[in-house]
């Protein structure tokens, strides 16, 4: 088996009495897109900073590309790309000077590939980065993260300020990256973005990993709408295994269901006559919210 791109063992980070990351065990496979989901304060950025050796863990350890995140930090940084959520560039340097400067720090990069990325993202290289909009600075950051074809790319909120056309180019680049056997670790609040590109997702809440799931398995959750006779009672549906987020309005029932639809229909028809029925896959946002409600 290939070496995991990222592996953590009992990762803990405390600030005084506050525990930001609480014993995370996580394994991210080589050649996959892994979506790291959670609201502000859940521990996403702290976890990323520990992985990159920007801060040291209180307990546990992390490995990137089979290397120790602390002992081998310099070698790891040569082999990865990184886009932080709070991207800071030298404000008096133009975009072109910025790419040359960081390319030089890496010992040189393929300038034809850099030019391809510039064209794809329609990046403005002539202005000083301090004069660029958030979205145009983000384009420079994306080029910096990908320009040396890293084995692992770690990104925190990469879509910030990007227009839909650039987001589409970004998603294509992510797919091309993993098609070459490289790995993308994507931390985001934009759940629709993660759903489009990720193979698996991890959901973090209050420093705990509450779920790690394949995207295809999460899509098994369905939204079901029923029109019933006689007037339905919410309690009859809340007691069903796999049912949650039950809403009853007049003769209609709306719910999320992660079991077999046949079992649901059997239970419903034992009490009610079905006048109308529709079912559709739940999107990742509904699944994400359901995990948070269940955790509480």
TrEMBL record:
Subcellular location: Cell membrane
Biological process annotations from GO: response to antibiotic
Gene Ontology molecular function terms on file: ATP binding; ATP hydrolysis activity
A Pfam family assignment: ABC_tran
Source organism superkingdom: Bacteria
This protein's UniProt keywords: Antibiotic resistance, ATP-binding, Nucleotide-binding, Transport
Lipid bilayer topology: Peripheral membrane protein
InterPro entries: AAA+_ATPase, ABC_transporter-like_ATP-bd, ABC_transporter_ATP-binding, P-loop_NTPase
Chief location bin: membrane
SUPFAM superfamilies associated with the record: P-loop containing nucleoside triphosphate hydrolases
Ranges for domain ABC transporter: 6-231
Keyword Signal listed: no
GO cellular component, one term: plasma membrane
Similarity field: Belongs to the ABC transporter superfamily.
Protein name (database record): ABC-2 type transport system ATP-binding protein
